[in-house]
Amino acid sequence: MEGALKKIRSSGGRITKARRGLIRVFEEADKPLSVKEIRRSLGEIGVKTSMTTVYREINFMVKNGLVKEVNLYPEEKMYESAYLVHHHHLVCEKCGRVEGVGGCRLAEIEQEMYRKRGFRVTRHSLEFYGLCVECNQGVGLMT
Ligand SMILES: [Zn+2]
Ligand SMILES: [Zn+2]
Predict the structure, then answer these.
(1) In which residues is Fe cation bound (predicted)?
(2) CA of 120 relative to ligand 2 center, distance in Å
(3) How much is the pLDDT for 143?
């Protein structure tokens, strides 16, 4: 929270109730959120805002590096805190559950892109789509 507030101040932005609320919503979220979900979560902590305000404030936070866009679905943008450690997502296409997975192993591939093609990778985005453990009834689990 403090780091985020500092970032807003240093970019010349004001600390409004909506911004403070958004920071809290993103800190407490355990998965990427849609704009509708963000507005609902804001309401739950007593911050009443219009959709327009939510869109505007999210754009502000994306521009200032506090929040990141996550492209899980072509029809709806999702957002998550930019302070999370690097991770990918597992998206269940049956129940819609979204889980974060860490332990990225793409560094080697990125180095190869540089060595073989001269392409310097600065970031990547990779999401996995399929069936979650419950929808798949635990098949394939090694326990
Ligand atoms: Zn599922
Ligand atoms: Zn990665």
Answers:
(1) 86, 124
(2) 15
(3) 67
Mean pLDDT of the chain: 93
Cα separation, 41 vs 3, in Å, equals: 21
- In tens, the pLDDT along 51-88 reads 999 999 999 999 999 999 999 998 999 999 999 999 99
Domains and CATH numbers, the chain: 1-83 (1.10.10.10), 85-143 (3.30.1490.190)
Residues annotated in a binding site: 86, 92, 95, 124, 132, 135
